[in-house]
Amino acid sequence: MTVSLAPQRSPAHSAQPNVLGIDFGTSNSAMAWRSGAGLAQPLAVEGTATAMPTALFFNAEDHTTHFGRDAVAQYLAGTEGRLMRSLKSLLGSPLLLEKTEVNGQAVSFQDIIATYLAEVKARAVALTGSEPTRVVLGRPVHFVDDDPERDALAQRMLLDAAHTAGLRHVGFQLEPIAAAFDYERRITSESVVLVADIGGGTSDFTVVRLGPERLAAAARTGSDRSEDILATRGVHIGGTDYDQRLALGHTMPLLGFKHTGPDGREVPSAVFFDLATWHLIHWRYSAKAMRDANALRTNYTDQALHQRLMMVLEERLAHAMANSVEQAKIASSQSGAQAAIDLSCLARDWAVPLPPEALQQDLAPLLQRVVACALECTQAAGLQPGQLDAIYLTGGSSALRPFQDAMAQAFEGVPLVEGDLFGGVAAGLVYSA
Q1: Quick one: which of 277, 283, 271 has its CA closest to 100?
Q2: pTM of the full structure
Q3: Measured between alpha carbons, how far is 397 from 365 in angstroms, rounded to an integer?
Q4: What is the pLDDT of residues 308-330, one digit of tens each?
Q5: For 11-188+421-432, CATH number?
Q6: Hey, where are the domains in the chain?
Q7: Measured in Å, how far apart are the chain's first and last C-alpha atoms?
Q8: pLDDT per position as a tens digit, 135-190
Q9: Which residues of 202-219 are buried (b: 16+ CB within 10 A; e: fewer)?
């Protein structure tokens, strides 16, 4: 895989560039800004928050477009329109170039990503009072696992969207490497660190040598630090995959997943996998998909389950259900206690429990693959787990207790250092310029 690790230089502004780092994430996005040789500054992209959900809502009532928390709130309030989330997951897929109807117009999903990036840029300019002269976009180690051609296509698609959004002099940096450059400014001694960037769509790892002397030397010589990067690995598993697994275990059975029909066979499962996957939900609201779902009625022994499935589709409730699963996951992880998946969108005061034991059990198969990737990265660097000085955690999903427990068990005795979960990559992107 070939990755451009530095943005093109802008000759007119090479002395004192304004660098904008954009961590365009599957679930959340963040920005950081650096003017000249100063420190990276996180930008409050939404109110006082330095991270904003990667979400858009196209309001069909007044034809306005909403972003981030505002987008999700508009949808949950019952406003008529379209909610889009997890669009990054479509990069590298032909689906990204397909068009969907938004307020009476056919728009490609790549153009929807461009719309989001244009809003991010506009907010950065409003906050800083300046246009960026260089832009560094983060990218995962793999957009697409085990397919270099589609992986390269994904980066080109994101670059095209950035150009459509009005971003110029754009380069890319691997997200875990960016996080390492941010972490390096917080340590006082030379260290060999495993950086774990666990986001909404991917889990990326880098083993890197860091320290104040290396940082100072790089500043003097302009080194790209490539020889300090000992290994990188990534797997296409992240927070949205955890949400999908939990939805299939706890909410989709209420719509008929794993339900046995009159012929002794389970109801066909494709509709449930789509409804449990953020970026695929909207496909199930098309007229053809609705007809296909309605035709499943004969596959049900319990017709109440089919009626509930059709209600979810007809009233477009699947995003609300997915949001409830995500919030329960976070609550159970943070508290270590039982949380409730709020299903009041289906029936008044209805909720299903999500105990921490179920969270641990349901996520275990995915977490095993993620930890295996971390161990493989360490081995590729020529190290045993115990030879690491620290594991630096960034990305929202790195805060999940089951993930941290699994890493602590696999890397016994190695300190887990929790960094800026949402802003660290954006700051590091700025430094990598």
Answers
A1: 283
A2: 0.85
A3: 16
A4: 999 999 999 999 999 999 999 99
A5: 3.30.420.40
A6: 11-188+421-432, 240-360
A7: 20
A8: 999 999 888 877 889 999 999 999 999 999 999 999 999 999 899 989 998 899 99
A9: bbbbbbbbbbeebbeebe
